Amino acid sequence: MSPALVIPSIDHEEEEPKRVVCVMDASGRLGASLVERLLQRNYIVHAAVCTHGNLQPLKGLANCLNNKNLKIFESDPFDYQSIINPLKDCSALFYTFETPQEQPMFDEYMAEIEVRAAHNVLEACAQTDTMQKVIFTSSVTAVIWREDRKSISEFDEKNWSDKSAWALAMDRGVNMVSINAGLLVTPEISMKTSYLKGAAEMYEDGVLVTVDLRFLVDAHICVFEDVSSYGRYLCFNHVVNRPDDAVEFAKMLTPSATTLSATSYEDLGIFEQRIGNKKLNKLMVDYKS
Prior knowledge:
alpha/beta; 9 helices; 30% helix
């Protein structure tokens, strides 16, 4: 496995670059968008992609390939050396594990794979002397899926149902901040998206939330750049808890269904919002995208 696939760039003058950061996996929608925005903010970016010999994952980075501050690394979360290579000299890592689009449900098998990958990456970060902060992308489901969820009046960063990554980060002395995101709204979203497995229950519980890509990217960079950031941040900018919200949500998932109306969903009722993201909103007040 080649340690780095360095893309040649056009030489032009610009201000001196900021710190070196890594984005892993940079082939997904979120990862590629993070790479593009970080380059715009003049960071040197190590983009770690899992290609397996297939150049398709690089398509999302097409707009960045001529930027001299970009280095692309072939990486596999289960190949320790291929994780270490892109982390070299980096002061931060943006880590996201995106479930394959063809995966119909986020089952126990996929959950185990995600945990194993996260542990490998955190171990590698602990061995990187220059690493100062890890921004770990997770889901709000890690907060709301708990046995006592019906008895909780409002979910926030204090509620947590999966502590394994945090335990390892603390044990290894890794400064980790987590972004627990709502359902990411992109053109690829469909009824097969694993997040939607419990959509009906989340709707009735007042915790079905979504997030736009731009807002999610801004949240990641804000949490990285703000030295006061710590712990977990719930990240969403829309709550689906009313019949008209449900109609728009359903239309987004099934564009071919043209006869949907609020009347079709009136039996769903209106449910009180029971999840908040005040901690993130407070941090982002002074953030300039």
